[in-house]
Amino acid sequence: MKSSAARPLPTRLATAVIVLPLLLTACGSDPDDQVGADGKVVITVAMDSGLEKAAIDAFTKRAEQFEAANTDIDVRTQEYTWTAASFTAQLAGGTIPDVFTVPFTDGRGLIERKQIADVGEQIAQLPYAAKLNPNVAKAGQAADGKQWAVPIAAYGQALHYNRTLFTQAGLDPDKPPTTWAEVRSAAKQITERTGQAGYAQMTSGNTGGWILTTLDYAFGGRIEKITGDQAEATVDTPEMAEVLDTLRAMRWEDNSMGANFLYDWAGINQDFAAGRIGMYVSGGGNYGNLVTQNGLKAEDYGVAALPLADKPDAGVLGGGTLAVVSPKIGERSKEAAVKWIDFYYMGKLTDQEAAVADARTLAETDQPVGVPTLPVVDRATYDQAREWTAQYVNVPLDQMTPYTAKMFDQPLVTEPTRSTQDVYKILDQTVQTLFTDRSADVPALLAKADAEVQAQIGRG
Amino acid sequence: MRRGGLSTLVFLLPLLLVFGFFSWAPIVQSVVMSFQRTNLVGPVEFVGLDNFAQVLADPLLWTALRNTVWFAVLALLFGYPLPLLAAVLISEVRHRKGLFSALAYLPVVIPPVVAVLLWKFFYDAGPTGVFNTVLGWVGLGPWQWLQDPGSAMPALVLEATWAAAGGTVIIYLAALAGVPADLYEAAEIDGSGIWRKVWHVTLPRLRGVLLVTFILQIIGTAQVFLEPFLFTGGGPANSTTTLLLLIYDYAFANSLGGDYGAATALSLMLAAVLALFSTAYFRLTRSWSTS
């Protein structure tokens, strides 16, 4: 063996050339502010991807208004929509915007792993910090109660339906189903009379588990039971069996679920907006996405409260969105990031001037104003904000009455807290098997899912 | 590098830097990462062989392996002979050979994602889907295509074969052009028809190319990702989850930071198996390809 000193120069140089890039790529750097030549701090903010031009114009206008009010900040927009796969890749790759949004389910985990910045001090300075709805605020809090992320929207699941298909099928669009038996019969009637899917359901990209969990809650079940540090899977229950039996009957006996059993969120929204689906379950505030990204015709749209079984534990799965800040930016950028969150996401919920400015901008660009959501601040502030913007509301509120009349009365149940996405992924397979294998054995499916969820949450 | 080593290195330097940054560094980092637990944001923990043990204990690994082998077998059955057949037929055509070559190559020009979206329309499982409409004309269907665990993988192979065959056809056409014409003339004088010429002249002369395309096909199919990712996401019920898709899922399916250690561990195992297979293959077939 030769010593390194004995190796010829070219060999040593070649070694250096190979090793140097490894060292360089392995090097990290401390969070730093990005400052432009004009001294302004530059932040990149998330804008929903795939927006129609009018929606992009509205967003750009809001960014300009923010810059005018904050002359030391330069805002740059970046298209971003949260998906489990792209989010983790972007975060790891350092291409996530400085301000972005994540679902409630990820808040606590991101905080524990320090994958988002601690902006608790800046959030505490916001005038409405103490007015946040405590039930939703905890999704963005660390274990010590410090608020790392700002809840900007909350939702309860709802039953979206196509009024035009209802009419064509001879159903009354003003009287949507209020029980799952009615959902089943309406779906059958829609398919028989229009040829479209009466009822469709998401099944892939972890959304299958999300919706299956929603139905389990609606039938009175729960996915997991947490006692102290112990987590027990409760997938294999009579409630979940009832859910699967109902779905199996709709799929295999009524044939009322169409021909696509690999829907994810984007796909099902697209097909619903295109008039190929009679009913589906998703977040109650989904109208905005359906219009701005999928070209839904307003007259087609209807939304109803999710039918709940007559059981004491039956409830509506609730969730929401958190605005968070990248951990890879400096202190000045963090200040600017929280200012943006305050301006863009929260101002319209808490400040009359901001609420009116936001609603006016959206209305001028034909973007939806007045989509029903659950309050992220206290109810009084929420109601007041709705009053401030009442004159700009342009969504078909009448068609949403079956939902809005009940949305505050339905018991809201949070999503599973342990390994949520992993649990949903396991349940994806359960519902895919049910929909694609006529001979699927429900008890066996449930036993398998229960064991897998137990193994997952036991680890998690 | 015995003479003028330094000047040789200077000329090599740009290439070494490019490969160093974009090829070798990621490979070495992957090897290192397979022994770590990291979310690429927080602190890194060395875990020895835990990632490998975790992957080997995952029941989904064997499902993915089975699916990948199934894809490879189907792709070999349909995707391997088809380009050869097409190339032989095109080479036999006397007029408009260029046009037929271009038509065969056309699918390769279509961006893969566009091709998949196109085929999604074809595979629409409703009675109005393109394929089901055609089947309906002869009283068949509607078939479930991607929506059935049994037919999903063959459907992926069909599209993959359509998409990739053109490139191989061009390689075979180039190789066929190198077959001396007098061999065919001699065969014709001996009374050979087209199939006897193919069997006794074409295939033996293409043996070297066929052996290379065979191993390339095996390696390519072992790494199949695009079709299951875009068509089915691994469904229905994991029936199209392949090894590469499993690696992707390890790394990216959980939004709270993927299991990059498990993903790189499985990547390394796959690379090692393919390297061993390729070595054995070339050793076993050395005498065939050079005779």
Q: Can you describe what's shown?
A:
- The complex is a heterodimer of chains A (460) and B (291).
- With 460 residues, chain A is an alpha/beta fold.
- Chain A has 2 domains: 41-153 and 326-392, Periplasmic binding protein-like II (D-Maltodextrin-Binding Protein, domain 2), CATH 3.40.190; 155-318 and 398-459, Periplasmic binding protein-like II (D-Maltodextrin-Binding Protein, domain 2, 3-Layer(aba) Sandwich).
- Chain A has 18 helices and 11 strands.
- Chain A has helices at residues 9-26, 53-69, 84-93, 104-112, 120-124, 134-137, 163-168, 180-194, 207-218, 238-253, 265-273, 287-292, 331-350, 352-364, 379-388, 401-404, 420-436, 442-459, and strands at residues 41-47, 73-79, 99-103, 150-162, 197-199, 224-227, 230-233, 277-283, 301-305, 316-325, 412-414.
- In chain A, strands 3, 4, 5, 8, 9, 10 and 11 form a 7-stranded mixed sheet that branches. In chain A, strands 1-2 form a two-stranded parallel ribbon.
- In chain A, helix 2 (53-69) links the parallel strand 1 and strand 2 (73-79).
- The longest helix of chain A has 20 residues, at 331-350.
- Chain A is globular.
- The model of chain A is unreliable at 1-6 and 15-29 (pLDDT under 50).
- With 291 residues, chain B is mostly helical.
- Chain B has one domain: MetI-like fold (Orthogonal Bundle), CATH 1.10.3720.10.
- Chain B is 73% helix and 1% strand.
- Chain B has 14 helices and 2 strands, in the order H-E-E-H-H-H-H-H-H-H-H-H-H-H-H-H.
- Chain B has helices at 5-33, 50-56, 59-79, 81-92, 97-109, 112-122, 130-137, 152-177, 181-189, 194-205, 207-222, 226-232, 243-252, 260-290, and strands spanning 36-37, 45-46.
- In chain B, strands 1-2 form a two-stranded antiparallel ribbon.
- In chain B, strand 1 and strand 2 form a beta hairpin.
- In chain B, helix 4 packs antiparallel against helix 5, helix 6 (112-122) crosses helix 12 (226-232) and helix 11 (207-222) packs antiparallel against helix 14 (260-290).
- Chain B is globular.
- At the A-B interface, helix 1, helix 3, helix 4 and helix 17 of A face helix 1 and helix 13 of B.
- Chain A: This is ABC-type glycerol-3-phosphate transport system substrate-binding protein.
- Chain A: Keywords: Signal.
- Chain A: Residues 1-26 form the signal peptide.
- Chain A: It comes from Saccharothrix carnea.
- Chain A: InterPro entries: Bact_solute-bd_prot1 (IPR050490), SBP (IPR006059).
- Chain B: Residues 65-281 form the ABC transmembrane type-1 domain.
